[in-house]
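Next up, sample data.

:::
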Amino acid sequence: MELSIVIPVYNSSNIFSELYKYLSASLKGIVESFEIIAVLDGCTDRSFETIDKLRLEDKNIKIIEFSRNFGHQAAVTAGLALASGEMIAVMDDDLEDPPEILPKFISKLKEGFDVVYGIRKKRKRSLFLRITFSLFYRILDKMFDIEIPYDSGDFCIMKRSFVKVLNEMPEKNRFLRGLRAWSGFEQIGLEYERGKRFAGVSGYSLRKYFRLAMDGIFSFSYKPLIYISILGFIIALVSFFFGISLIIMKLMKKIPDVPGWTSLFVLILFFSGIQLISVGIIGGYIARIYDEVKHRPKYIIKRILGFEEEITDVKEIL
């Protein structure tokens, strides 16, 4: 197989047929053979029926169905584990990532690069979301110990040798664009204009974006721990000098005997907030350690269809 295309699917019964048409048209004459791996991540609509109907008409379509919703990153991970192509692409199911740019990705990969990823130079989203996404990448850049290109997402194409490296990484709270950047090799980004969702509503809420950002920060950076340590040191230093000044003022009888200070109340609230934030950051690291030591699977597969060996048992494939 020359090319595998991994597509995480969530409630895309009214989109996938169009995506399939665009993909088939874009890849015609570009590659000799390709497969489309649709990973159904706990869909509650008729996505399975729609894609399975296409699968019966085209043997290049393959299905992995999860037992429930495990998340976008788990769906990509499952698709990469079963992809058989010498080149493996990852793209979303909503047609925001244009299939017609894939030939350009393939051309760059054949020039000798191991990874070609998309850089979104423009998004057809609301102003609020565009500002939020822009801040997201700028904040991550300050937090990460690795360099992740601005406005790059999971939309990419990779050589099989590179995907093998990703598949061998065991962590459960995965941030794939971080793993991709951390792995090194020869990588290049191509700018493209991200389209508008073809139909329906995105299954990625702001809460999920925030969770993804936290997974990225906690997986690839110790800077939050360093920052709270520095903040604690600064606060302790300021408190020390403030305490000295209060003692001197008390000895000089310049402090009125008033029961309770508003400033004391404000300081208690401030330091309590700092302590809770610090505990929350440390807890974020501990929670992810807890996830790892439980050794639960990243996902559970309900059934797969279209592969050489069809599996119906509920199991993880890795």
In short: The chain is about 50% helix and 15% strand.
